[in-house]
Amino acid sequence: MSGSDAYLARFLDLHPKEIDLSLGRTLRLLEELGSPHKTMPPAIQIAGTNGKGSTTAFLRAMLEAAGKRVHVYTSPHLVRFHERIRLAGSYVDEERLAATFEEVERVNAGRAITLFEITTAAAMLLFSRKPADVLLLEVGLGGRYDATNVVDRPLASVITPVSLDHQKFLGDSLGAIAHEKAGILKSLVPGILSRQEDEALVAIEREAARVGAPLAISGQDWQAREERGRLVFEDGDGLLDLPLPKLVGRHQIENAGAAIATLRALPKLGVTPAAVEAGLSAVDWPARMQRLATGALLALLPEGAELWLDGGHNPDGGRAIASTLAELDERSPKPIILVVGMLNTKDSDGFLEAFAGLAGRVYGVPISSSSAARTTPEVIEAAQRAGLAAEPCESIVEALTKASKAAGATPPRVLITGSLYLAGEALAANGTPPH
Length: 435
Known about the structure:
Elements: H1 3-11, H2 24-32, E1 43-47, H3 52-65, E2 70-73, E3 85-87, E4 90-91, H4 94-108, H5 115-129, E5 134-138, E6 156-159, H6 167-170, H7 174-181, E7 191-193, H8 198-211, E8 215-217, E9 222-227, E10 230-235, E11 238-243, H9 251-264, H10 273-282, E12 290-291, E13 306-310, H11 315-331, E14 336-340, H12 348-353, E15 361-364, H13 376-385, E16 390-392, H14 396-406, E17 413-417, H15 420-430
Parallel strand pairs: 1-5, 1-6, 2-5, 6-7, 7-8, 13-17, 14-15, 14-17, 15-16
Antiparallel strand pairs: 2-3, 3-4, 9-10, 10-11, 12-13
Helix pairs in contact: 1-4, 2-5, 3-9, 3-10, 4-5, 7-8
């Protein structure tokens, strides 16, 4: 192991807990690095449970279509850590990343800090050293005490749909989790909210009132909907008639709407309706209902089969994926087969219940890239509790081979899902990593 991977391995040993939400360690290191968080390009911060990555992707595509230079910080990565840091259009290169890791390691001097905190500090150092017009800053976990929440005056704060996830760290109710997400709201900074459950909305509105953040709320101040094969966005400034987004799934209309509402709240950025339209057509976000059109894994399936990939991993994510599969099935019926691996921190039963009556078979597989993976028998038991026929496999390759042999006269539609870690393994095995 060498280069940036060697630094990442050492960073893991700096703090006994993988997740320990706090701003103190991050602020201490940033100050010792010269406070790069204060000299980065102006930021749009994005929090939420589901859809924050897709919303970030829409924002990037629309801003770049408007000719803007855009930095992006997202997590987790799928295949390589470099995917988390995009500098003015390109993933950070290995030489620059390793040199920055060396710098933050030296300044940190062995003191306790989590992997996410020290790598976020490194990312902010990189963002501060390369000019850009906008930084899209995706929250890692929660919001209030997330390492990204060191930016005092973002351009806007976006909160995508909030649902139950990470209860161990954020609270065991929707309101408690939403309260933590709302911690990114700042005084006089526009807050853009995707459609929320009532309990979450009340918590967010309460925090917004406390800090003095003006809100633009989906369903009240703006809305995005599908009409006759088009995306219609409407707010107080008028109506936009746009093409449907390139990203597949009805839930992507709401994510696109959040991005549009954000840019409409920031007229000084100069993103025109033409740039919004171009962004909808150009947007790319791997492992979110991504169809794999080529590659080693696809070659294992019979001719005419479809291979899809989605890293969804919680009950709301499962429902969104299942809805998309149902739409695909209505247009072009095929036997639906799931290849599923999940982490033991996720609600496997709630996720898999969404596919009852839709998927004909589930193949459970291990996830080798995470120590928190559920065992294959655990995945199978959860699928069976959801009323799904299921059997274990030792790998994605074995699962697809079985799916191919089990296929009848109609080639199947196969979806690999349940975890972004599994999605990353699938992209690597397929030979089609993000680029």
